[in-house]
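The pair is quoted verbatim as follows:
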Amino acid sequence: EEQMVESGGGLVQPGGSLNLSCVASGFTFSTTALSWLRQAPGKGQEWMSTIYADGRRYYKDFMKGRLTISRDNAKNTVYLQMDNLQPEDTAVYYCAIAGRRPRGQGTQVTVSA
């Protein structure tokens, strides 16, 4: 059974950056597409980015330029670098196998002055 453990969230001021990490287990990481999603208070889950095994990356349109997704197959870890964070980015961020529901607890990102 797949397991995901997200970390790296926290409180950051507007304009700041965070680098989220997700350590995965229970499946063949190196051949699996992985996604980051988020859920803001009172809203549904929102897809943010996907990285495929061959390195192709896709981002939600309005987040392009502020997100960078990457992976380290040796560490079974996927990352999400987020720059120029704004208060509307406040949410719980999750990683997941692409196309599947998140399994982890997520990591809270709060953007506030």
Summary: The chain has a mean pLDDT of 96. DSSP finds no helices and ten strands in the chain. The longest strand covers residues 18-25.
